[in-house]
# Entry
Amino acid sequence: MLPILVLMLPVFVHAQTIDALLGKVKSWMTLLLPIMVGVALIVFIWGLITFIAKAGDETARTEGKQRMVWGIIAMFVIVSIWGLVTFIRIATGVNTSTTIVGPKIPN
# Structure
């Protein structure tokens, strides 16, 4: 209960609205998502290069295979969660292109 109150505190003191807080979270996620997919792709390519470059060494090939598998798993999980969130957003009819304007405090 305390973490929820801490998150809601800016709303209570009118320093920040929930919409602004969610906007910041969305902007961070918009930045982090391509970076995470890129890192997973780099891990996969790193494993592929290791697998091909050290074809004679069995331990290096096994290490390369393992990196490729983890890269594919990471990409699958990231894209699956991204797709699931988009599906739920569309299924529930949540429109992210409109902004909600709250009531203004009179001066």
